[in-house]
Amino acid sequence: MAYDDPLKARKAKYNGMELLVCVASRYLEDGASVSVGTGVPVAAAMLAQKLYAPNLLVIFEAGGIAPLLPTMPISVGDSRTTHRAIQATSMTEVMDTLSRGLVDYCFLGGAQIDLYGNLNSTQVGTDYRKPKVRFPGSGGANDFGSLAWRTMVVTPQSARRFVPKVDFLTTPGYLDGPGSRERAGLPPGAGPYKVITNLAVLGYHPESKRMMVESIHPGVTLEEVRVNTGFELLVKDPLGTTDPPSEDELRVLREEVDPLKLVIGREAK
Amino acid sequence: MAYDDPLKARKAKYNGMELLVCVASRYLEDGASVSVGTGVPVAAAMLAQKLYAPNLLVIFEAGGIAPLLPTMPISVGDSRTTHRAIQATSMTEVMDTLSRGLVDYCFLGGAQIDLYGNLNSTQVGTDYRKPKVRFPGSGGANDFGSLAWRTMVVTPQSARRFVPKVDFLTTPGYLDGPGSRERAGLPPGAGPYKVITNLAVLGYHPESKRMMVESIHPGVTLEEVRVNTGFELLVKDPLGTTDPPSEDELRVLREEVDPLKLVIGREAK
Amino acid sequence: MEGQGRIFTEVDPDLLRGCFRSKSKKLTNKVTSVKEAVQIHLHDGDYLAVGGFGGVRIPTALLHEIVRQGRKGLGFAGHPATHDCEILAAGKCFDRCDAAYIIGLEARGIPKMTRKYFESGAVECTEWTNAALSWRLRAAAMGVSFIPARSMLGTDTELHSAAKEIICPFTGKKYLALPALFPDVAIIHVHEADINGNCHIRGILVSDQDLARASKRVIISAERLVPIDFFRDDQEKTTIPYYLVDAVVEVPFGSYPGNMPYEYYSDEEHLQEWLTAEESPETYQAFLDKYLFGIRDFDAYLELCGGTHRMSQLRDLEYLRKPEGEGAD
Amino acid sequence: MEGQGRIFTEVDPDLLRGCFRSKSKKLTNKVTSVKEAVQIHLHDGDYLAVGGFGGVRIPTALLHEIVRQGRKGLGFAGHPATHDCEILAAGKCFDRCDAAYIIGLEARGIPKMTRKYFESGAVECTEWTNAALSWRLRAAAMGVSFIPARSMLGTDTELHSAAKEIICPFTGKKYLALPALFPDVAIIHVHEADINGNCHIRGILVSDQDLARASKRVIISAERLVPIDFFRDDQEKTTIPYYLVDAVVEVPFGSYPGNMPYEYYSDEEHLQEWLTAEESPETYQAFLDKYLFGIRDFDAYLELCGGTHRMSQLRDLEYLRKPEGEGAD
Fold first, then answer.
1. CATH assignment of A6-257, given 3.40.50.300, 3.40.1080.10, 3.40.50.1000, 3.40.50.150?
2. C202–chain D Cβ distance below 8 A for any pair
């Protein structure tokens, strides 16, 4: 998935991928656990470990627990994910651990996301037997979206992607709104937390559970965010501006986390 | 549990424990699996491996799989049960394996057994809150009696032990008779197989599921068997006589299986 | 809500108990060839599950052989299925699929022709999640027909699964009952195996222990054969015990171009070449003719992909012996 | 039929999720003393589960300390409970018990005073089987409130359990729903642990992996402390990961007089002495005064039982270094 070209005003300083990674990393506190996939999430977790959260427990759904990552993994199951790890266990045990409430954060993506944070990674088109485009499906996304305490979504933002209603509800956000996760039988207290895009950081209104802009990135206007969203967005009052990546963040990210630019160089492709 | 003094006519040749072990061992065929406890069952399995069934898979419920037993274990979980074993796994996995139908034979005992092969290892007296005597309970017995294909019981025989109705039905035999295991939800085709005592080998009538004498041991009369049974026994026609231990069986048992007489010397105590 | 999808496999544990009962527990020599293992143990119409994690510790040699033998009408457990799915799709081997993760190659992208195979209507899917398929295998490993879980609730994934909602008799809470998954055949690649089928896996286990327990027949490919004392000397090595296994084949580099932890890293260039070939039917067919249909066996494939020289490079990459980014040239 | 027994522990997985969420996942030094571990983590009225298999790999040092600190009103998982049960009964520590296997010492016999404790009415029991308690712990480890099983059906064991009959929505077959078992505290003896709580167990695991996952608090006693690299160098060694563990104590011979596989065999003479002492209240009290109440700590117990000389003999027995029957002199 290629991230759209993001901001305008910061060309000399940092690129969009760097911003995504730095912003995402700030939400991970020490002593928490996070399930990560490849790409931005693993870079964010590595950056957090080096800057703010040395004891962040990194979990890969295929079984890698607390590795000392030597470099970016290509697969969430590849051997980098167990490099000097504490444990190389089973996916089943990771999912059990998730179900017991031991996973604080997870990172998810998707082809579509709606105003309640529901995600579609299954198909374009609403006819299940005849999809216009078929995607890989849930993988572990539905499991993490159902059972992790806080779901973070990192995604490029566009009206095509931020839709009023997902074609296929692969992974639960707040489903139909307040109370609907609980009515469906999902564990209370868990669910959508933040959406981090190339334009803004979004959260959810505490009562209505609808998506809400919390801060916009430097150089981005609220109008840009709205134009790139296919539903009516709530706006936090006061609306913040995202702190740009600090020099420290950028240095560690570029020199220690991703020196080969496997993640932060993707935009340049 | 001390075995009653058994037969009369074979003092010079073999004792009661030796007979029990030899007779039990003959029911275990090559390529089958058997879950054994300490004492007679493990001796029988070891004897079978040395004489008839080199590929008998011996399973201990605590997790020991296919050990090369150097000597008699004291506990079904002690380190003898994993001596050069194929696997040292969990009790949970053994129970799963049992539930999947991979355990052909098991050996059980109990303070009481009734005409349908139901076993009591929980208590004397029928008031659960105020037992006259409390025993250890099911342990794994109920699990094996429920899920192993063929349950073998090795026990001394007396009217006190062979009762019309057990005080507490710990482990299912045929419950109330034909069809009642299936009605209770237990898997079809599994259940009681043989009862081997100091007096006789007993089985179950194929239709009525009631206990039936199949053969009596050398020197024992049918009357003795009946006197030592608290319910009406069916008798197979023709009634057989148990083959006494052969010289081969006795030699291997005494020299290789139990040279320290931990099991076969117990009567002498 | 009740899942509208179809269950592709037998759920009744009593039928499976009868099947498992008939397996011999003898220690016997089960070593055979890749060709014979597939010929004897996998039949058209069987339900197949593949060990490993899509592109990690997959039994590539067995997968290629299945395609070359032209197996058709298989059921397939898409439980992280990435390159394994791509291989079987190349042979159009399956027509029904339990879909947790299919088609994609994780961050590498989506192979277009594989996707077309799914979009064409040739494959009937039932939706699940990675956890749901793991737990379905666990239910089977426990010898029960269902297991309760809390994933999928309230979503279209649930709607297109074959799960059913049930109420916990103790808490009154809603759960999804997941039907046990008993595959006809599992194919699993391991680090070491003995001739009897005892297996050692290093690194992540994915769901392979439950998979081996849940499956009617189990075919193992191993990087190397070891004596039984490898296991008797240290029982911690026994990831899969012999009595679950029906056939053993020794295939060094048997997971190539996948990543075999502690052995060799994935060949990203070759995977990329395959992915690129899927851009058009013509390049796809040419690629498959060259690398899959047009060759004799897996050894020929390894030779075609660079042979021992390439394997050494991948071993260096696995062990981080060269600065990252320089090892794959 | 519906089990008439009582469930002694919280079944609602959502309450437990909240509890597990609050556990820190930091790598921190959790090493403490036996005394402090029990003081801080086990309270009167808690529900306690003990790792190992009754007389094999049991945390004897922790069990003695619980008795000496006078813990009362505990719930107890009698999941093969033999010598561990005997120790706790000596302190009259528990008043309710999930009974799968209690009181007895397997083939060694039944300790009379321990049995009297159960027969006196001081202990409320709910009946289970070994598999049922294993599966109850697995349900908890999976974060669900129940799990279906096929043991106990049709028996008085079922009647006096707390299980409930349910119907499989796929097959219509009857199952028993077993309630998840989430102990307040687990105490587990292991071969190696690091200061963070990563643990290595050799030999049979009984149910200890699920037990560690299912319990709100986990106290580990270890034969020896090892550096964290013991685990990072070889992840196959990690039987229990650190984030499940709350306290670690190093206690060499910490399972004595039990059998610690690969370390030392059980002290059958001492176990027999204890068993014989239970023949009368007087001999029982004298024995307990000498070996349990009247001593300072577990080191003193080991000294009283023969110290290093005896431990060497038990190591010889474990390794079959002397002809059987001659080692226990």
1. 3.40.1080.10
2. yes
